[in-house]
Amino acid sequence: MTTANTSAEDSRSALAEPTTPVSRAWSGYWSLANFGIFLAYYGTQQILLPRQTNAITGSDAAAVSAQSWANIWAAVVAIVVSILAGALSDRTLHRTGRRQIWVVYGVTLAVVAFVFQGMQHGVVGVVLGWMVFQAGYATITIALNAAIPDEVPVNQRGKLSGYLAVGTAVGPLVGVVVVTFLLTGILNAYVGLAVLLAALVLPFALRTKGKPLHAEERPPLALRALLVGIIEPLRYADFAWACSQRFLINVSNALAQIFLYQYLKDEVHTDPDVGTLFLLLAYTAGVVVVAIPAGKHSDRTGKRKRMVVVSSILQAAAALILAFAPTLPAAIAGATLLGLGYGAYLSVDQALITQVLPHAQDRGKDLGILQIAGTLPYVAAAGVGGLLINSAGGFPSLYLASAATGLAAAVCVLPIKSVP
Fold first, then answer.
1. Is-contact 250 402, C-beta < 8 A?
2. In a domain, 227, yes or no
3. Domain tally for the chain?
4. For the purposes of burial, counting CB atoms within 10 Å of the CB of 15, is it exposed (0-12), middle (13-18) or buried (19 or more)?
5. Distance between CA 332 and CA 280 in Å, rounded?
6. What's 231's domain CATH number?
7. For a Cys-Cys bond, which of 76, 225, 264, 282 suits 336, CB 3.0-4.6 Å?
């Protein structure tokens, strides 16, 4: 079996900053893996989960509540798993590197969860299945994210962020197409997504090799040290500001997207399956147009923060359109702006967050903390969004909250000093 080695410098410490560019094969497998997890996650989140909860409850309000609870508990699981998987992968002594084996663990959990969830006919079973899937999803994501500072030089990270942005947009689109037109049942859709997830993600784990950690480089692991280590990085101002801006911009994006199915059905009064596909096409086009050029530009200039500001303004504009113009053409325009905004953000996100990590030996754990800033927004969006829709002004209040949190992210990125 051939491998895509991340570095020709065999003598380099696993904790050192990488200087040799990763190969095209490494970049390709990494990008394919991210495409796979987004395909499975958002195909379920946008279509399959609401379809299943609507079928189980038979009520619009009950389906929104069931979807909210599933996302709340799943995100709580992801918070814990993100930190634990990150910390444990930091200490993994494996011949293929610290991260690849954790991708295998995560895929295994996710596949089992999907098969289980597809067989459920009650809300509790759906919630449990989504929780286990989220544990697998978080494990895969942390391993893939931590591979960047382990193996990719700083001046190549913007381009990888651009590839990630494309996967973030195209993956959900393909996932929605699959569960809308090809796998229209519940069980066959979950099983099909499980197969696609494994086929797309496992090549990174099986055909790439990271720099192995030597025993003498392995940091000790103690419960007290781990608990302290969750708080300690937040003492670094740049890390704390990066956490804040990532949390807020993802809250904005989550509020704008997580209830689109219900928004199209109840507010726009159109077929939610087909309408979601149209919006995802527009969103994907926006992301793809901007992501890779913006990422490469940020590599050349070294400037990352301005893209976050641009993203915040575009996301706020998109949310205002959705709030005050509940028609399908307006929603498509809003989705396009949302894609342009989130694509601009994702084009620098991976590069920016890896440049504010305090300690090389804790990259996985610290990225686990930052991952919470990408996961916790779904707790806020699912919980607060459900309340806003059902009892505090409906969908307009939901999208006004999206606009406000998007603009707040721009305020939080400005104080970061270590990244231009």
1. no
2. yes
3. 1
4. middle
5. 9
6. 1.20.1250.20
7. 282
